[in-house]
Amino acid sequence: MTFHDQSAADVIREVASSASGLSEAEAQERLAKVGPNRLTAAPPPSLLVIFLNQFRSFIIYILLFAIVFSLLIGEYADSLIILAILFLNGAIGFFQEHSANKSLAALKRMTRVQATVVRDGTPHQVVADDLVPGDLILLESGSKVPADARLLTTVHLQVDESPLTGESVPVSKEAKVLLPAETGIADQHNMVFSSTSVVAGRGQALVTATAMATEIGKISRQIQEAGDVLTPLQRRLDRFGRKLGLVIIGICLIVLGVLVARALLGKGDLNGSMVLEMAFIAIALAVAAVPTALPAVVTISLAVGVKRLLAKGCLVRRLAAVETLGSCDIICSDKTGTLTENKMTVVRGWSVAGETICEGSGYEPVGELTGEAPALLFEIGLWCNNATLTENDGVWQLSGDPTEGALLVSGRKAGISKVWQRQDELPFDSQRKLMSVLLAGEEGTRVYSKGAPDQLLACCDRIMVAGRVEPLTAELAQEILAANERYAGEAMRVLAMAWKEANGPADFSEQGLIMVGLQAMIDPPRADVAHSLSRATVARVRSIMITGDYPATAAAVAATIGISGESMSGAEMDGLSDGELAAALATGTNIFARVVPAHKQRIVTALQEQGHVVAMTGDGVNDAPALKQADIGVAVGSGTEVAKEAADFVLLKDSFSHIVDAVAEGRGIYDNIQKSIMLLLSGNLGEVLIIFLAVISGMNLPLTAVLLLWINMVTDGAPALAYSVDPYSRGNMTRAPIPLQEGILPRPRLQLLAFLGLVGTVIGLLLFAGNGGWASDSAQVQHGRTLVFSFVVCYEMLLAFIIRRHYQVPLFANPLLWLAVTGALLLQLLVIYTPLAPYFGVVPLDLDDLALLGLGALAFLGAFFIYQGVVERAGR
C-alpha cells in the first residue's frame, strides 16, 4: 500500500489512528500483534555449522579418504598427522569467521535508536523497537527517523536520505503535497523513511510501516533471500581438487594393474591376500600424491592476509573472500560516502571583484582561502546559519544541515572574528528559498540573508563592488546568474549572500538588500580517491560509479576523480532489456545516476553474467542488495548496519584507498597460494613418478610410506607454509586480473611444474638405479633409498627458491623461508646421522655420496636455467 498519494486524513483512517496518535494500551496491543520494530536478521549459523563449513572442499574430501586408508594399511602416524592438519585448518577458519561476526555484533549493539512518540496526548521517549503503525512521532533536527511514516505537519523540515537513496543533498519535506502513486522513494517529499535522519526543521508524522514492512526491511529481506556464492578461489580449488582426484584414481588403477600383471606373469598364481597387499601399495602411492599441507597453506595464507588488512582498517567477515578482490576486474562503487566525503564543502567564493579558491575538505576548519572575494561574503554565511560544529578528540562533527555546515567552515577558514547577537530570524522555506537573520553588534544592526541566487537577486537593488556599494544593474545581475550557471554546471550547489543595514526590528525584511556574491559547494571526492582509481586502472580493474544522486552531480564527480565513459540514469535503464543493458556495459557505460537498489543489483548481475568478478562498495541501505549479490561486498564502516551485514569486508576507516589495497592484498595472497601449490605438486609429482616408474620397471620400492610422510610434512610442507608470509611481487598491481575461467595454475606455471617434476624424477631414478635399485641385498637397497630420499629433500629445497623467481620476489626478503629450508636440511642430517636412522630405514652417507648428491642438485639447477632461457627467448 502507498501513502504518499493519500491525504493525511485518509492515512489516519487507513492505519486506524488519530491526529493525536494512539493510546498506550492500543500501542501495546498492536505491538503484541505486529512484533517489535526491529529488522529480522537471518539466524546466525551455529558454531558447529561455522566449523563444519571449513571442510567444504574436494581436496579436504580426498584427505579424509587418505585418513581412512592410512588407518586400513596400519599407517596410524600418517592418519593422525593428516587429521591434525585438517583440524588446524578448520580451527583457523572457524576462529577468523567467529571473531569477525562478534566484532560486527559489538558494533551493532552500540547503536540503539530512540524516538519521541505521542501517546495518550503526551510526548515521551521510547526505544524505536516499541513503535507500531499508527503511532504519532515527533521529528526534530538531529533525530533519526525510526520507522516509515507519513508527514502530518512540517516546519522547514529537511532529511538526509543518503543512506537509503544515495542522494548527497538533504531533501526538503512538505506534509501538504500529494504525489502520484508511481513516485519513486527519492521523490516522496511527504514521507520519511527508517534509517534516514533529520538535519533541519521539525515535523510530526504518522507511522505507516515498521520492521520488515519498511523500505529498509524490504531491502533486508532481499539480502536474506540471496544465497552465498563460492569465491573464485573456492571454485578454482574445487576444480583443481576434482582433477587431482581423477589423477589419483588413475594412479591407483595403473599401479594395481601393473602389480597384478607382474604377479601373474612371474608366478602365475594370485590369491586374495596378495591382491589386498598390492591394493594397499597402490593406495599408499595415491595418498602420497595428495598435497597434504595444501588446506593449511591456503587457510594460513588467507589468515595472514586478514591480519594485514585489519592493520589497514579492513575487517574481513569471511576468510575465503580475502582472495576474491585479487581476482576482481570491476569495482562498482557508490558515490556518496564512498568516493566522496559525504560532507558538503565550500570550494569557491565569487564576487564581481573576483573569485576565491577555498582549500580543505570536510568539516575541519583548516584550509587556505586565496582570491578576491570579500570577507563579508563568508561572514554572512557564518552568521546566517543554524548549524553547529564541535570538536571531539580531533574529529569535527556537524549538527544540522550539511549545507549550513559548509558555510560555517568557510567562515572559520576566512578567520571571521566579528561577534553578533541574533535578534530575529526568517527561516528557510521551500517557497521563498531564502533565510535571513537580524543581528546586533558593535557596528549596529544588520540583516544577513542567503538563498537561491535568482530568488535573492530579486530582493537586491545594490551590489558590493571592490568594497563599494553600487547600484545593481542588469549587466551585473546577468554576470551573477552566469557565474551561478557555471558553478551549477560543475554540479556545485550555489548560495547567494546579501546584507543591509537595519534600523532596528521594524526594519527586518528581505527587501532593499545589497548583493555580495556567491558561495559554491560540493560533496568533495575523498583526497585519495583519484590516486586509488588510477592504481586500479593500471591494474586493469574497471571502476563504475553507481549512485542515487542526480546525473549532473555524478558526472561532475566522475570527471574530477578520473572515471570516464558514458552515463545512464535509472529511468533510462528501466527502458532497456537485460541484453541492451549488457551491451551498454560492454561498450563503456561507467556512470549510473538516480538509481534504486534494484538497479544496482541488476547492474552487478549483468556484469557477472558476462564473466566478470565484481566487487561492490557502498555504505547505505540502498547498497545492501548489490553488496550481497556481488562476488565481494565491501561496506564502509560509517555506513548502515544492513550494509555491513550484507558485506564480506567492512572498511573500519572510510577510505576508498583501502579497497585498492585489498585488491593488491588479494593478488598477493593468490600468488602465495599458487607458489605453495606449485611447490607441493612439483615435489609430489617427483615423488610419485619416482615410485611409479620404479615399480613398473621392476625396481625395488625407492621411498617408503614413512619417508614420503617426512618429505611431505617437513621438507615441502614447511617452506610452503613460509610462502604464506612471502612479500608480494613488485609488479602485483601492474598486471591484469586473473581470468575467471583460468585454473588455479595457468598453463605456463603447469609447464614449469611438469618440467621440474620430470627432471627431478629422472635424476632420482638414475641415483636409485645405480645404487641398489635392482639389488637383492637389503643394505644396498637402504643405501639407494637414502640417496633418493636425500636428493628429493635437496630438490624440494631448491624448488622453494626457483618457484619464487617467477614472482619477482627478492631472494632474501623472507627470513621464515630461509629458516624453514635451513631447518629442513638440519632435520634431514639429524635423521641420517643419528640413532633415528633405523626408524626411518636409512643409513649414513659418506663423502662420495654427498658429492653425488651435489652433482644431482647442480644437474637439476642447470636444467632449470636452460629451460628458463629457452622459454624467455620464445617469449621475446
Summarize this structure as a short list of keywords or feature phrases.
elongated, 876 residues, alpha+beta, ten-stranded mixed sheet, single chain, 31 helices
The biggest sheet, with number of strands, parallel, antiparallel or mixed sense and barrel status, is: 10 strands, mixed
Question: Structural class, judged by helices and strands?
Answer: alpha+beta
Rg calc: 36 Å
Task: Work out the helix count.
Answer: 31
A few lines on this structure:
This protein is an alpha+beta fold. 49% of the residues lie in helices and 18% in strands.
Task: Give structural notes.
With 876 residues, this protein is an alpha+beta fold. The chain has 31 helices and 27 strands. Strands 10, 11, 12, 15, 16, 17, 18, 19, 20 and 21 form a 10-stranded mixed beta sheet that branches. An 8-stranded mixed beta sheet has the order 8-27-26-25-9-22-24-23, with helices on both faces.
